[in-house]
Structure formats: C-alpha cells, structure tokens
Amino acid sequence: MDRRNFLATSGALALSSTLPRMAFAQDNTITFGGSIPMTGGAAETGLNVLNGYRCAVKYINEEMGGAEIGGEKYQLALNLFDDASDPSRATTLIQSQVDEGIDFFLGSFGSSIVLPTCAITEAAGRIMVQAGGGSDLIFTQGRERVFGIFPRASKQFVSSVNMFTSLDPKVETVSILYTNNAFSKFQAEGARTSLEEAGIKVLDFIALPAQVNDVSNVLTTIRENTPDVLVCTTHDEPSILIARQMVATNTNVPMLYQTLGPQTAGYRDALGNYANGVVTQAYWSERAPYSGDYFGSAADFAKYYNANFERELTYHMASGAACIVSYVQAAKNAGTLEVGAVRDALAALDFECFYGQIRFTEDGDGDAALLGPLLIQRQDGEMEVIAPAEGASAEPIYPAPTWEERA
C-alpha cells in the first residue's frame, strides 16, 4: 500500500457523534483517526485535548504550508469522533476506523478509554500517540506502537515529593485518596512509594469508587487525622466533588493537592474563590523556556492558540498539539509515511519544541526526567508555577488559608 494515500475528510477536521464514515481517499493528506470525549464525564478535559489537536493541524497546514516529508508536502486532517466518555463506544469507533484503513491514531482522554483502544490499534499494527492515558498498564504489556506524551502514572510524583521536602514548614504527613480506576490507582501507588522513600509518612491510603457520589465519611477520617497534605489522584469531576464537600464540612488541610481538575475552567467556575490555594500538576506552561520549529516558543504557542481558539488555554491543549508535532517530526526524520518507519522514528525521537524535550522510554511513555509535571497553584485566580524552583513564577502558599478565609 502506498502510505501517501490516506482516507481523508473533506476538511481539516471532521467531528461526529455517529459511527465514522470515511470520505474518499485523497493523495498528500495525512489523516489522523481516533475518538475523544466531547460529551460525558470526561468532556471538560477531552475538549481541551481536542483543541490541542486542532491547533497543531491548523498551524502546520496554514502557517507552515503543510508537513514536508520525503521531499513532498502533506496537509493534515483529523477524523475524530465523540466517544461520549464511554470505553465501549470508543472501541467500536476505533475498530471501525482500523477496518477502513486509518494508520495513524490519536488517543482519547482517560486511561479507561485509551487502554482498550490502544489494544485494538496495536493488534492491527497501527500507531497511537496520545496525551490522555497514563496508566502503567498501557506501557507494561509489551506494546510497541503506543506512545504517551506523559510519563506512566507510577512515575509522575517525583517532582511533587521534591517540592514537599523543600517547603517550610516541612511536610511530614500525607493522606492519599484515589478513585479505583486504571490511572488513579497506579498514580496513587507511585505517590505512596515516592513519599515513603523520602521519609514522609502516609497516614491514610483510601480507595474511592470509580464513580464517586459522596466522600463525607472519608472526610471525617481526614479531620480526625489531619495530614499536612491531602493528595487526591482523581479526575475532574471527583476532584470538584471532594473540594466542595471539604468546604461544606469545613475540612481544612495545609495543602490540598489534586492531580486533575484544578487546571480547568470548569473547576474554577465550580469553586470560585475556594479554588485558590489548591495545588495541581501541569505538564506545560507558557512561561517554560522551550522552543523549536513548530510554533516557536512556549509563549508563542500560547499566543497562537489564544488568537485562534476561544476555549481557555490549559496544558492539555499543549499536550494534544505535541502529539501531532511528534508524529510530523517522526515522519520527517523517517523521510516516509510507511508505518513501520514512522513507528521506529517515534521510538527514537529526541527533540525540543514548544512543549519541551520530547523523548519516549523504551516502553513508549514520556521520559519522566524530561516530561514530568510542573506543580502549579491557583493564586488570586491565576495559575502560578510553584515547582521546580528554577521554573517557578511564584512561591507556594503554604499553609493555605482556611476555607472560611477564602470565602
């Protein structure tokens, strides 16, 4: 098969809530398949990742005139469908796209969706590059064609522990809440290991249901045995629920740290001033000192995104765009769109762009030394980088004000 012939959509982006129906084949167009949560529980962040994909396609097509690979120019197109945050729906969509000839896939958001869909693309000999799944299971089951912009979940807490040990007063105790799903559990276990290795005592390690409706009993435990830091390895909606119930029950801790949720406009809108002081992870900042051939610097990416898209910029947009950039750079290095060659070039990637130094481990996840998270804290409504110190835009506020003081 001539890999220059890709099933393409009629424009740069096709979005649908129905099963995919591919358009006619078109030369010199690279079509990326996949699904993304545009509705359902993961939609808040899913739409952020989607806008990152869209941003990179728009920039490369319009500002760079396309991607030059092997002496030829190619336009990029997206053929992404709404999986409604439903793994079963996502697997149906991805299998249909595999059957219709898509070779290059972008990931959905959430390990519960990425895990079964990447199993389909792997078995079919196709490639997936994704910024939505960090579960260790994605990267420890022998897959060779799945690449993640983030480090695997169990390796995502090293920078956090470094910050905890540098705070004054020093963090001595931590409690961990996690939802019982493929990502959060691995991240929580990695956090516990890293904390204990640093000599920080883990007071409680509490599993919540995958679908959380109430945490009042758990918060009673937190009030009775208050840690210096409450770590929640939870996704957007559970993070909002936990914070709201902490406010309602006056459950105060010196630091509330939630790995997903506080980065989003939805979290800010739901909690208002109570969002101030909450700490979270970010895998990119427009203040970061990175630059390269695509977009220019991190600040240039932010400027371009804000000029072309209305949805508030978070690191998820940059991560999504980095997936597209990684594909294009790998194909450029390979000099061909032959799937095996692109796969090998992805495995060997080591280049700097607006997102940072992109390099994957031999298992396909992001190199933790290069692509691990920054720590950010909402201060007076602004997201400030508080660690690592060399990249910080503000000092951590610790201990944080009580909920009553934030009202």
UniProtKB/TrEMBL annotation:
Keywords: Amino-acid transport, Signal, Transport. Residues 1-25 form the signal peptide. It comes from the Bacteria. InterPro entries: BCAA_transport, Leu-bd, TAT_signal. Residues 29-364 form the Leucine-binding protein domain. This is Amino acid ABC transporter substrate-binding protein. It comes from Pseudohoeflea coraliihabitans.
